Amino acid sequence: LEALGTIWVLVQDKYGNELEWISLVQGDKVPLKHMGALTITCSSGESLRITAPNGKFVQPSETKKGISIIRLH
Fold first, then answer.
1. 43 closest CA partner among 73, 6, 2, 72
2. pTM here?
3. Which residues are paired to 72 by β-bridges?
4. Whole-angstrom Cα distance, residue 51 to residue 65?
5. For 10-65, how does the pLDDT look when each residue is reduced to its tens digit (9 = 90+)?
6. Which residues contact 24 (CB under 8 A, 6 or more apart)?
7. Which DSSP string corresponds to 9-57?
8. pLDDT score of 43
9. What are phi and psi of 21, to 5 degrees?
10. Residue 68 DSSP one-character state
11. Alpha-carbon distance 13 to 6, whole Å?
12. pLDDT over 90 at 73, yes or no
C-alpha cells in the first residue's frame, strides 16, 4: 500500500474480521502481510495505490474521493 495523501486504511479478511487499521501520510508505504482474499477500506480511493507482489498496480473498480472499498482475491 502506498499513500498518495493523508488517509486511513482498514484491512479485513474474507469474513470481515479486522486484520489491520493503518493511518498513512503522503509517501508512506506499508506491505500487506496477510494472505488470501482481503477487503481494503480507505478514506479516499484516489489517495491509495495498491501494488501486487509482481509489481503491477491493482486498479480499484472506482477511484474516487471519499470512502472506497477494494476487494482483493
1. 6
2. 0.86
3. 38
4. 19
5. 999 999 999 999 999 999 999 998 889 999 999 988 899 998 878 888 766 555 67
6. 1, 3, 6, 7, 8, 9, 30
7. EEEEETT--EEEEEEE-TT-B------S-EEEEES-GGGEEEE-TTS-E
8. 93
9. -125, 120
10. E
11. 23
12. no
Task: Give the pairing of strands 38-42 and 7-13.
Answer: antiparallel
State which amino acid sits at residue 35: M
The pLDDT of residue 52: 82
How far apart are the C-alpha atoms of 43 and 72, rounded to whole Å?
17
SS3 65: coil
Maximum distance among all Cα pairs of the chain, rounded to whole angstroms:
30
Q: Go through the chain and tell me how many residues it has.
A: 73
Cell output for 15: 469474513
